[in-house]
Fold these 3 entries.
Entry 1:
Amino acid sequence: MLDHRLLFVTGKGGVGKSSVAAALGALAAERGKRAVVAEVHRRTDVEHVVTAAGADHVSIDPQDAMEEYLVDQLPRALAELLSSSRAFAYLAAATPGMRELLTVGKVWELAQDQRRTPGAEPYDLVVVDAPATGHGVAMLAAPKTFADAAMAGPIARQGRIIHEMLADPARTAIVAVTTPEEMPVNETLALRDGLEQANGQHLALVVVNGLRRKRLTAEEAGALESHREHPAVTAALGLHVLALEQRAQLRRLRRHIGAPTTTVPYIAGGADIAAIARRLDGALA
């Protein structure tokens, strides 16, 4: 998994995809790779954890990406004129899919041996904390959509180059993150279908985050039923039912997803990036 050049991590909002992306970046750095975790929409949720682990962190803003692209593609005077043009900025922002194209274009640039930024070193691995499921699919499909629409010219050529990398399973892998609950599992299955239909891509791995430990056997749970009036027993039985429901959703996911899965246990007190990295390290070994 970490031998890919691009690793997109997506999933339903709130399932822990940013934590998984940070853990993958930290794990890659631990294995001696020059890695960067790229977040979108100016998010910096896990920056300190990622950099402390030895990986780089970048927050991608479509406006910044557009200005960088213009400087690279056009004569400097024209690039500065367009970058400072409010009308051009409004036009770019209003064009459907343009923000996704600019974002994924910057992601692609980070994964090149010859970086657009003067003096910038190439990365062995770019881990993308991608937008939530639907927007993530739109971002991955944007280069092909624009290339097909333009048919010829620099946008079509650039779109095809980026799409070729995104659609190449040897260079790009897509990791879905979910929790073992009905709606997130449904969305993960929809993500699989959306990727295949939009771009012909397949999930390389599904990380099931927050799996509760099953602490009681069926016999033990049955024996406790007669003491349900006690608050501690009520809480224990509630967690037991939750653990059973999560495993039912996990089985449903594995039955239908058609991709490798791994689990990350529920961590009390919030996301522990180091613990998630250790868990993924074992799963990816």
Note: The chain has twelve helices and seven strands.
Entry 2:
Amino acid sequence: MSAPAVVLLVLAITVVWGGLIAAILLLRAQPERTDLPPGGDDDHREDTAPIERDT
């Protein structure tokens, strides 16, 4: 393996594994976002809508 190939390999490994480690540390520090609006309540629209079937 040539020197530029080794440098590129080390750089790629650093970017991939460093990004993974940074993401894990960020998720550990802030596991859930609190700045999003409330939501996720089911309004049961599908209970009153006509049934759609594939033919």
Note: Residues 1 and 10 are 12 Å apart (CA to CA).
Entry 3:
Amino acid sequence: MDLFFQQLINGLVLGSIYSLVALGITLIYGIMQLPNFAHGHLYMLGAYLTLFMITLYGFAYWPAVLVSVAALVLVGMLLERIVFRPLRSAPHINSMIAAVGVMLFIEATARALWGSDYRRLETPYDDVIHLFGVTITEQRLIVVAAAVLLMVGLHLFLKRTVIGATIEAMAQNREGAFLVGINANRVSLLTFAIASGLAAAAASLAAPLNLVYPSMGAMVNLKAFVIIVLGGMGSIPGAVLGGYILGLAESLSGTYISSEYKDLVAFLILVLILTVKPTGLLAKEAR
């Protein structure tokens, strides 16, 4: 039984990271109807920035995380302004092709600048805590706690602030939002900033648990898209729920079936949800 609870904890850690990444993708999709294929590679950039801030410039862990988040917020805003905004009136396929182009550009740039080596980020929070027969490191606890804080913060921002209300209004009814004078440019810019910041936060939290390398964003990206299909395209609660379902499914299947098939679980879930409920578990109502 201890093994089962241990894997539940591991699944919660994994699900926390997945949820943060999927939230960014679903926010952008909700506002711009754009599946941002480059989002996983922004996650990779966030991990590298945190790594280099600590190893090259001697930053402590949390200041390095803040620098990484701030830098990715800026990168996200630049992408929206330079790449995606000019394509807003173009056929939808153009934005999707642009997203793939950005994805390839970011990965190629990372390989050219930093090589293809796998790097490890040491954590200052490596003490182990034993609780009711379950073992967990401080870093894993930090991942879960920080992810919950970020999700609660995002929820309060969207529900309790005027700017957040404009984002929700545009996601729920784009034409209605335009009619009441909501500035679409400002909302999409802010959405890219928040989504990219969440990707950097997730990467910075996960980097001490995983290796850092140029293609690390690809698999995270694929799983994030599985999550938003599972939870419902454009649904914020669906992204959170889907992230934790996938994290728990991977953790438990890796233990009780085989770790070799862990990644396969994501795609089995995708096939299952597309067959049984193609709109996702918490799909938004049709607009």
Note: The first strand starts at residue 119 and ends at 120.
